[in-house]
Design brief:
2 copies of one chain form a homodimer. The first copy, chain A, has about 375 residues and is of the alpha/beta class. Chain A is about 40% helix and about 20% strand. The first copy, chain A, is built from 15 helices and 13 strands. In chain A, β5, α6 and β6 form a beta-alpha-beta unit. The first copy, chain A, is elongated, with a radius of gyration of 22 Å. The mean pLDDT of chain A is about 95.
C-alpha cells in the first residue's frame, strides 16, 4: 500500500485521443490499461490514495466506436504530469503505450494552461510570408543535392535557383557535415551565393541549411548558420529529438524560420493501427516543437501517403492550439512541375511546394527551370 | 546533368541488412530504391558522375529470400556519408526509407573505421559488474513509483529497497521534473537514502535517476545527479534523441552507467514489416549511443514482445561490434518474482532483472520483499 499524498494540482487536464484496434471489450481493456501505463505504471489495486487515483491516473473522458474495427478513447492526464516540458509531454502521451500493439495517438487536446509553457512557431504562416515577402501565392522550395557534390557545386546550384526566383533553397536532408561538403564551408558558400543572386534579382530567396549534427553541436551550428547569412534552418526531429528543435526555435539570437523534416519519423505513421497519426506528428507535435513548416511526402510521389493522410496533416498544421501559430504544410517527396495544378487545387495557397530532383530534369538550365516553376505558380495565382 | 566530382573516399563501407516485404520483383525494386533514397535522393539517370554512382549510391551487396513473403537485402554505403556522427548515421541507415512501407532495418554491419568514431558503452557488462561488485549472478533492479508520490516518499522506498539488497534502484521513467517530485529534490533525497542504507548493509546499491528533461537541461541535470551521489542515469533515447545519450556517456566528468529506456520507441518495433528490428534498436543502436544496459519489455508481461524478439535483443547486446562493449539486457514490463526461475533459464546470468510494481504486491514490507527477490536470485545461482 502506498503512502497517502496531498497533491495540490490545478485540476486542468490535457487529453489525447487514442485510436484502439479491437472489439469493444478489447478496446476498453486497452483504454483502461493506457490510464495506468501512461501514469503510475503500478498495480492499480495497490493504490488506495484518493489523490493519485483521482488526479494522476489517466481518465477516460469519452469512448466511442469509429468503425467496425476501431474505437476512439479520449484520455486525460493532469497537466502537471507533463512537467510542462516537451520531452515529458511526449512520454506522458505515448511513452510506454507506443510499445503496445493496436494503439495510435490520433489527436492532442491541450489546454491553454499547458500550452503557455510552449512558445511554438516563431513565424508561423503569416510570419513566414512577411519574412519572405510573399503575400498570397504558394511558396516555392527546392533542395540542394545530390549528396557527393562539393560545397562549391551546391552553392552554384543555389545561385541558379535563387536567380530563377525560388523562395526557399534548402539543403537536402542527407547533407550533414561530410568531408565532401563540410557544413561550415557549404553554409558560407550557399548563403553568399543566394545573397549574390538576390542582389541581382531583387527577390528575397533564402538559403536553409540542413542541421543534422551531434547534440552538442546543434546550437553552435545554428548560430554559425545565422551569422553566415542563412535564412532558415531545417531540422529532423526524428534524428535530433523534438526538444532540440524547440531549444533552437526559442533562441532569440537565432530567430530563423524552421523547416521540420520527417527523416527517421516514418515508423510512427507507416502503420495505421499503431504509432502516431499524420495529423498529430507532422502537425501538432511539429508546432509544439516550434517548426514553421512541416515537410512530408505528398500523395502520389515516391512515398505512400494517401490524400486523406495529407489532408489530415494540413488540418494538424492549422487546428486551434491557442497561441501556437498555424504553420505551412510542405509536401514533397518526388513532386514535379506537372503536379502543381493538382497540388494547388488540393492545398490552396497555404502551402510550400517542395520540388527537388525534378527541377533538374527539364533541362540543364536550372535558372530557366526555376523560372518555369515560378511562372506556373504565379499564373495559377492570377 | 550534375557536375563531375573527384571524391577521395576511403573505400570502406558500412552495411545495413533490410528486410523487404514482397515478392522478388517488388523486393528488388525496394532494394534499388533504398540505394538512391538513402543517399542522393535524385533521379538516378541524371547522375552521370562515376564517383557519385560508384561511391555514394547505396550498393546491394546481397539479396536473398528469407521466407515466403520476405527478402533480405544487404546494402552498403560509404562510411564518409555518415559524417562519422550518430545523427547522420541514423539518417543514412533509415532516414527517408522509414517512411516507406514494408522496409525494416534488421542488422547493422559497421566497419572498424566507422566504429572508431564512437566510444560506445563506458562500462558494458564487465564494467558494470565491477562497478556494482556483482561477480556472476544476475543483477537486481527495481523502480521507484508511482508517479504522484513525493520525493520523500520515493526516497523512503529507495531506502527500503537498498536495505533489502536491490543492486539498482531506478526512477520510474514517468518521473521527470514534476511539481509533486522535483528532479533535484528527488535525486538528492534518493541518493542520500541509498547511501544511508549502504552504510548499514555494506551492500553497494545504486540510485539511478530518470533523466527526462529539456535538451538544454540534460547535461546540467546529469552533472547535478552525479554530484548528488546518483550511481547511474536512465535516459530514454526516444524522448531525448540518441545523440544526447551519447553526449552524456562521453562526458568524462559524469562517467556513470547508463540505462536506456524504450519509452516512445515502440513504434519502431511494433510492426514486424516496418521500422527497426528489436536486435538493432535495443541492441546495436543502444550500444552506439553508449548505453550499458537496455531495458525492454520481457515476453509474457504487460507487453507483446515474443520470446524470439527478446532473444534477438540479447543477441544485439552482445553481437561483435569491435570495441563497443556488450551490454546488459534488462527485461521488465510486468515481471514478478514468480518469473525469475524461467527468466534465469532464458537469459542465463548476463541479465538485469527489472521488477517494479510487483515488489509491492507481496506485503507492505518492502525490505522483506526485496530480500526475497535477492534470495531467489542468490539461490538459483548456487
Amino acid at each position: 500500500m502506498i503512502p497517502k499524498t496531498a497533491l495540490t494540482l490545478s485540476g486542468d487536464r490535457l487529453a489525447t485521443v487514442y485510436k484502439l484496434l479491437g472489439d469493444e471489450e478489447l478496446a476498453r481493456t486497452k483504454a483502461n490499461a493506457i490510464c495506468i501505463e501512461q501514469t503510475v505504471e503500478f498495480p492499480a489495486n495497490l493504490i488506495t490514495d484518493d489523490d493519485i487515483r483521482g488526479k494522476i491516473f489517466g481518465q477516460i473522458e469519452s469512448f466511442e466506436r469509429v468503425d467496425e474495427a476501431h474505437f476512439e478513447a479520449k484520455i486525460s492526464y493532469a497537466i502537471e504530469s507533463s512537467g510542462f516540458e516537451l520531452t515529458q509531454l511526449l512520454n506522458l502521451i505515448f511513452g510506454n503505450s507506443s510499445i503496445k500493439p493496436g494503439i495510435r495517438v490520433e489527436r492532442l487536446e491541450l489546454p491553454e494552461s499547458l500550452l503557455q509553457a510552449f512558445k511554438g512557431p516563431r513565424f508561423g504562416r503569416n510570419g513566414l510570408r512577411k519574412y519572405l515577402g510573399v503575400e498570397k501565392r504558394p511558396i516555392l522550395c527546392t533542395a540542394l543535392k545530390p549528396m557527393g557534390l562539393s560545397a562549391k557545386s551546391l552553392a552554384d546550384y543555389a545561385y541558379q535557383f535563387a536567380l530563377g526566383g525560388i523562395d526557399m533553397i534548402k539543403d537536402d536532408h542527407g547533407l550533414a557535415d561530410q568531408s565532401f561538403s563540410p557544413f561550415e564551408e557549404r553554409v558560407e558558400l550557399c548563403a553568399a551565393a543566394v545573397a549574390r543572386a538576390n542582389a541581382e534579382t531583387g527577390f528575397k530567396s533564402i538559403y536553409i541549411p540542413n542541421l543534422t549534427a551531434p547534440a552538442d553541436q546543434m546550437l553552435r551550428k545554428a548560430h554559425f548558420a545565422k551569422k553566415a547569412g542563412a535564412g532558415g534552418l531545417m531540422i529532423s526531429p526524428g534524428l535530433a529529438g523534438f526538444d532540440i528543435m524547440r531549444q533552437i526555435v526559442d533562441e532569440d539570437k537565432i530567430a530563423l524560420p524552421i523547416l521540420s523534416h520527417p527523416a527517421f519519423q516514418g515508423s510512427f505513421v507507416i502503420n495505421p493501427d499503431s504509432g502516431i497519426s499524420h495529423h498529430a506528428l507532422f502537425g501538432q507535435f511539429a508546432r509544439l516543437a516550434g517548426a514553421d513548416a512541416t515537410i512530408f511526402p505528398n500523395h502520389g510521389g515516391r512515398f505512400s501517403f494517401s490524400k486523406e493522410e495529407c489532408q489530415s496533416i494540413v488540418n494538424g498544421t492549422e487546428v486551434e492550439m491557442s497561441h501556437l501559430k498555424p504553420i505551412f504544410p510542405a509536401p514533397g517527396g518526388g513532386m514535379s512541375l506537372d503536379r502543381l495544378k493538382e497540388m494547388r487545387e488540393f492545398y490552396g495557397n497555404e502551402v510550400i511546394y517542395l520540388i527537388g530532383g525534378d527541377l533538374h530534369s527539364y533541362s540543364d538550365d536550372l535558372i530557366d527551370n526555376s523560372r518555369r516553376f515560378r511562372k506556373i505558380v504565379n499564373n495559377s495565382n492570377a
